[in-house]
Write a structure and sequence with these properties.
The structure is a single chain. With 148 residues, the chain is mainly beta. The protein has strands spanning 7-10, 16-18, 23-24, 26-28, 37-43, 46-60, 66-69, 89-90, 104-120, 122-141. The strands form 3 sheets. Strands 2, 5, 6, 7, 9 and 10 form a 6-stranded mixed β-sheet that branches.
Length: 148
């Protein structure tokens, strides 16, 4: 069973985000990046099956803030305007100026919950967790008003 780090959809590395503006966080879901993912194998009288799903994603923003979200996040819709995400979001309080490459290093860490069953005459079950990470770089700038 292949389990990978989250496939970060937002924030996008190519974008530039603004201090004080809510950023919505979400991941693209697939069996290998969010689950559910299942696998089975057998040899003779022994059969093993496993089901894995991401239980949570912890975001580290590179600005010292950390946030744990219990789902994939909510995809931003333009009709939401400047509202914060209803499920998973962050608002930067400072720009990424002065950081390496003028960007923050963003890390998304998925905690996978894996449930397994072994049948070998008798049935046995259990659970364990696996951790996978993905990283990207994001630019955060400051908006400044210029008056006459």
């Amino acid at each position: 069973m292949k389990l990978e780090g989250p496939h970060i959809a937002s924030p996008q590395a190519a974008g530039t985000y603004a201090v004080g503006v809510p950023m919505w966080l979400w991941v693209n879901q697939s069996p290998t990046t969010f689950g559910p993912n299942t696998a089975t194998a057998s040899e003779g009288a022994v059969a093993v099956s496993a089901r894995a799903k991401v239980a949570s994603i912890t975001w580290q923003f590179g600005d010292g803030a950390t946030l744990t979200c219990n789902g994939p996040g909510t995809v931003y819709q333009a009709s939401s305007g400047m509202k914060p995400s209803p499920t998973c979001g962050h608002t930067f309080a400072k720009s990424s100026a002065g950081q390496s490459g003028q960007r923050f290093a963003l890390t998304a860490t998925a905690t996978w919950q894996v449930d397994w069953t072994v049948t070998a005459g008798a049935r046995d079950t259990g659970q364990f967790t696996e951790i996978r990470q993905s990283q990207t770089q994001i630019g955060v700038g400051e908006l400044q008003a210029v008056g006459n």
